[in-house]
Design brief:
The protein is mainly β. It contains no helices and 11 strands.
Length: 127
């Protein structure tokens, strides 16, 4: 069982930056791929970024590529999402998730590939 707790959300202006953090419980954090998803009001939850268990490979949604960076610190059981050049369309609840496919060459990027989810943190970007 993995428990995930997100933090770092807030209200910012367009062009600003935020860094989200997700702290995970358990001693097998390195074996999990970690992902960030988001859900805007009235929309389905969508993939944002993911990283392999070792941290060697990452994958991004086209909408955030070049602006967002996912990273992880396995010694701290924490994954991060650095968000730069934020836009109003980035407004959503951001969720951290853990996938058991952490050791494969493939970086999981769909909701069904993730086994554990956090409660989410709100990010609001004003224009």
């Amino acid at each position: 069982q993995v428990q995930l707790v997100e933090s770092g959300g807030g209200l910012v202006q367009a062009g600003d930056s935020l860094r989200l953090s997700c702290a995970a419980s358990g001693r097998t954090f390195r074996s999990y791929a970690m992902g960030w998803f988001r859900q805007a009001p009235g929309k389905e939850r969508e993939f944002v970024a993911a990283i392999r268990g070792s941290g060697g490979s990452t994958y991004y949604a086209d909408s955030v590529k070049g602006r967002f960076t996912i990273s992880r610190d396995n010694a701290k059981n924490t994954v991060y999402l650095q968000m730069n050049s934020l836009k109003p369309e980035d407004t959503a609840v951001y969720y951290c998730a853990a996938s058991r496919y952490g050791s494969t060459w493939y970086v999981p990027r769909t909701l069904t590939e993730y086994d554990y989810w956090g409660q989410g943190t709100q990010v609001t970007v004003s224009s």
